[in-house]
Design brief:
Layout lengths: L11 H8 L2 H5 L39 H9 L7 H4 L3 H11 L3 H11 L3 H20 L6 H17 L13 H11 L3 H11 L3 H27 L4 H18 L7 H4 L3 H11 L5 H11 L3 H45 L3 H12 L2 H9 L7 E6 L10 E5 L2 E5 L15 E5 L7 E5 L5 E7 L4 E7 L4 H6 L3 E6 L3 E6 L2 E5 L5 E4 L3 E5 L7 H10 L11 E10 L2 E9 L5 E10 L3 E6 L11 H7 L15 E2 L6 E5 L3 E6 L3 E6 H10 L14 E3 L2 E6 L2 E6 L4 E6 L3
Antiparallel strand pairs: 1-4, 1-12, 2-3, 4-5, 6-7, 8-9, 9-10, 9-12, 10-11, 13-14, 14-15, 15-16, 17-18, 18-19, 19-20, 21-22, 22-23, 23-24
Helix pairs in contact: 3-7, 5-6, 5-7, 6-7, 6-8, 8-11, 9-10, 10-11, 11-12, 12-16, 14-15, 14-16, 15-16, 16-17, 16-18, 17-18
Amino acid sequence: MTSNRTGSRGAAARRLSALGLALLGMIAVSPAAGAAPGPVAERVHQSAPPAKTRMASGETPSVAAETEKVRAAFVLGLVPTDEQLRLNDKDFVILLWRRATGAEVRGSAELAFASSDAACTEWIRTGIHQANTRDQVNQLRDAEAARVARELKEQALIVLGIVPESELVITNNRDFIYEITRRATGPKVKAAALEAFGQPDPAQKEFIANGLRTAHSRDQQDKIDAEAAGEAAKKARLEAEAARARAVSVVRVLPTPDIVTLPDDDILRVIADRATPGSELEKDAVKALRSRDRADWRRFIDTGVFAAYKRDNAIVLQKKYEADRRIVEEIKTRADNSGLQPRLARAAAAALAGGVDEVQGFLGIGQYEVLTQSLSRNALNGNIAGHYLRDVNGALVVKPGSPEPAPDEGLDATWRIGPGLANAECRSFESATKPNYYLARYHDGQKIRVGVRPTDGTNDFFWNATWCVDTKLPSAGVTIRGGADFLRRETDGTAGVGTVYYWWVTDPNPDSTEITLHWLNRYLPDYDPYADLWVEPVGAEQVDGRVRFRDFQERDDEGVPHPAFRLYWSAATGVHRLNVGRGTTCPAPEILDAYLKLGGHKSVLGPPSSDDACTAERTGRYAHFGSAGSIYSTDRTGAHAVSGAIRAKWASLGSEKSTLGYPTSDEFDIPGGRRNTFERGRIDFDAATGVATAYPTTS
């Protein structure tokens, strides 16, 4: 194994050297090679520094590394300057889009740009390379869908008399509608655009495709009515010209006076000539033109042109949907086969179970939201669950979290899993907190180690940061191999490489507090994160000052879950269980319910210091709290608390085995002190003397 080399941060020529000239042989250069790079226009949006930007999940979103931008630019024969490499990912996509000539590279860039920042990042990393491959074999997938989205925006602008600027028509729907609110002059268009601006994406698509044209026609009608009041002939002429203007916008013809004053049959010829050969639009225009009935011409201009164009788009989008489903199926298959991306596989399955919107949503942004996972030690490695592979202040360790973790602590055990940098069939693990830092092997001069290191763009680093699943066992997880070495936990708790070692691949941002560790290791000895759990949490762990608690449920023999117990933790008392209900081993009234009625951990009792357990004769149950409180429960006495000096006195007599028996009341005030009653007597506490005295019942 060769050690990683430090990456160059100098001029573009040195980056080219760092990546290696062999890279040029791996990437097909498009016909755009040799053209001068164009300037990048200022954009309305400003990207926040990636290290300080957080997604809803709490993870730091990944951004494309400089080396990834260089590789993407090489596809188009461009050696990017330092200034270009400093562009945010969206602007870098636009830079390459301007350079590209291949239909799929341009189309996929437009779809990514109109989707999300994450989609732009993934396009730089992998999308441009995949699209360029499709261009080389003339396989269209994204180009037609991008054309439809672009044409709808061009039509909308032409209808409003706005010049369709190339970069405006590839923006996302929300930004495009914002521009409509700024540039449109008609009050009804402005009002409809303002309403659509705050709507979900499907409603915004409908506004661009149909709603804008409808609102504009109403603005036109208002103007016509005002200009031609009382002049029927003029009004009819203006209405006809407005309809022709809307019709020719479908084929992106500017509605100049020369155009809108043409006879209806000439308008049909304009549309037929500009329509895509063989399209529904061309067929319907020719069919209407062949009719001798002028009413057929007018119907086509008023409504038919839009219906035909809509059918054309539906055909294109159906083909795109079918292609997208195949892509999602491939993603699911790769995620399943990798053994390292169960979240991605589940999300792909959910998208496939849905429809067009779910599939598009998954490919647009959903797939990028489920790339993170965590790696957990499992039962084959010492039967200790809840220990995760973590980057803790630069040290790579396998350990649980803190007993009282900070809100984002689980991020140190979260890894963004993507295609292997050196082999796309394997995987690379990127830190969730440090973009472009990867789990990588390196040689420290004495032995091979593993750490979290920044990419330097060399083939050495790519190879050292690529990991393959060697073995998958349904009940044991996966082994992860880099080169000839397996990722493993060393005896001192650090991560290293060596012999075979199994990992669970679990959800990101793991919670491994003392309560979670207790649950996993006491109640789930054969814990499998991919199987239905017989004991599982109900809701998140609750925090109240220095006390933490969480509710759990258990499944019965039919697999139906039922409330089971609550676990409490404090630094002084540790983790202890209080049961829900009577139980079966030693049935008695619920101790947890009695405890909560007294105020729970905020009461004088404090948090539990023992589990809810059976008494010696198994006719009752008890739990201890803090250092001087208990609750005892039987059917004949109910559940009652004893504490302080009264409890100490009762314990000295033998507790429930004493002549007094079980408590029949909680502690209550009496003149000069406090009292508990018992089955066969009472104990009084004298506040003046601090002495507790037992008074057995005499018979």
